[in-house]
Amino acid sequence: MRTAVMTDTNSGISLEEGSRYGIYVLPMPVIIDGKDYLEEVTLTHDELYKALNENKDIVSSQPSPGAMTEMWDKILSEGYDELVYIPMSSGLSGSCSTAKALSAEYDGKVVVIDNHRISVTLLDSVYDAKYLANKGKNAAEIKELLEKNAYQNDIYITLHSLKRITKTGRITAAGAAIATVLNLKPILKIQGGKLDAYARVRGMAGAEQKMLEAVHKDIAEKYAGIPKDKLSIGAAGTFEDKRAAKQWFDKVKAEFVGYKVVYRPLSCSIACHVGTNTQGVAVGMTERTLKID
Questions:
Q1: 189: three-class secondary structure by DSSP
Q2: Based on the structure, what is the number of domains in the chain?
Q3: Residue 167 confidence (pLDDT) above 70
Q4: SS3 content of the chain, % helix, strand, coil (to 5)
């Protein structure tokens, strides 16, 4: 049984990276001032950041059913018996439910996995799926293993600006104005596909420290007894300055010596909601044994 692995760009896996490691990646759509774009195909992160700073009308969108099924058909025509598709969490987008409905027409050859992850934690799930497929696991077995540990991941994000999240209605304009005057940085937590407020800290340096402390606490309590090579630490952001991205990555690596630490830009779909110069850190369990840096 040959099982292919497919995800979308919300995983942080680029089209080039996916091609290099045998993972199929579906570009996620973004609509800017009424015009449709595809991440990495017709829209770069820098172009999106520019549009965000110009306060253009920007919304994320689901992949079209045609784009999704066209990629499934292409994969199955390449000699695979089945495929697993791991989109972003159903708690954050309707694309997972759409995929499940469409997969019903494929007689079990397309298995949609919802393990309630996004960004760097979804990235780990995708590489876990590829590892398991290479080990001979079929789609049903991969789905069972990944969904069993669906909630074994935690993400913390600090917003540099509240402008974008105010537009989504998650915070009032008055609340945003007060937070801006007081230099309060909101820290949001994503766990199991649910986005919640975690804390408010004065200044970005304080917010960084609070996020790192949160991950240390998760490791000590929620993941107590889990070997370091079964836990992945992820840094992410929507940094306009690549030097700032490296500084954050280096800080996270220095904080979690002895763990596998990766960095990926937040996807365009996420950036639409959190704006530029947002940064985050995550921890999650993996099915494979990680090689420590």
A1: strand
A2: 2
A3: no
A4: 45, 25, 30
